[in-house]
Amino acid sequence: MNINVQVIESDSNSLSKQLIQFIYETNQLNIPALGSLNSLGHVKELFVDSKYIISVKNEIDYIGFAVVMNNNSNYKSLNYQYFKRKYTDFLYIDRVAVVNKAQRMGVGSCIYNKLYELNSEVPIPICCEVNTIPLNQQSLDFHRKQKFIKIEEVKFGKKRVAMLVKY
Predict the structure, then answer these.
(1) CB-count burial class (<10 Å; 0-12, 13-18, 19+) for 148
(2) How far is CA 95 from CA 1, 9, 61, 135, 136, in A?
(3) Half-sphere exposure of 1 toward its Cβ, with a 13 Å CA cutoff?
(4) Is residue 53 helix, strand or coil?
(5) 52 within some domain
(6) Alpha helical stretches, state H, 11-146
(7) What is the largest CA-CA distance in the chain?
(8) How many domains does the chain fold into?
(9) Do residues 10 and 119 make contact, with C-beta atoms less than 8 angstroms apart?
(10) CATH number of 57's domain
């Protein structure tokens, strides 16, 4: 499969309508692994709060995305705030999704490899969380292979999440 990985910085204002729609629809198909988005406007708000959006396209369509924040974000997510209290400088993977037809084909690894490349000049911790209730075993396995370590498990309402970091 021929894929193209693109990094869009939040200060570029270059998020296409097609990508906004893709992020919204793909995100909603991946609930409860991902938090719900209220609207297309919510995607735009995430973009403003983000450092990067990483998108992956095959020859025709978008097939995956990631939303990545840094320590300077105004993002109000409790999970993000957890890492903001722990680290002064970090990247936070807010959400990652790959369409069903492209899962287990290396798309997630391409997204993470691009993030590692962006983080290589002056490496800082890369943080994320993965649901343990409801269990998201596929994501836990993926992050273990990527050498993330669990630093804590936290309860948020009915959910529990593993707080993960890669140094």
Answers:
(1) buried
(2) 23, 16, 19, 16, 13
(3) 18
(4) strand
(5) yes
(6) 17-29, 40-49, 78-86, 107-118, 137-145
(7) 41
(8) 1
(9) no
(10) 3.40.630.30
Q: Name the average pLDDT for the chain.
A: 94
Spatial separation of the C-alpha atoms in residues 63 and 98, rounded to whole Å? 6
Other beta carbons within 10 Å of 133: 13
Report yes or no: 68 and 111 within 8 Å, Cβ to Cβ: no
User: What residues make up the domain containing 8?
Assistant: 4-126
Q: How many residues does the chain have?
A: 167
Q: What is the pLDDT of residues 29-62, one digit of tens each?
A: 999 899 999 999 999 999 999 999 999 999 999 9
- Residue 84 CA to residue 1 CA, distance in Å, equals 37
Please state the rounded mean pLDDT for residues 93-120: 95
Which residues touch 104 (CB under 8 Å, ≥6 apart)?
none
Please give the residue that has the higher pLDDT: either 98 or 2. 98
In a domain, 8, yes or no: yes
Q: What confidence score (pLDDT) does residue 2 get?
A: 86
How far, in Å, CA of 90 to CA of 127, rounded? 7
Q: Residue 85, SS3?
A: helix
pLDDT of residue 7: 95
Strand, helix or coil at 129?
A: strand
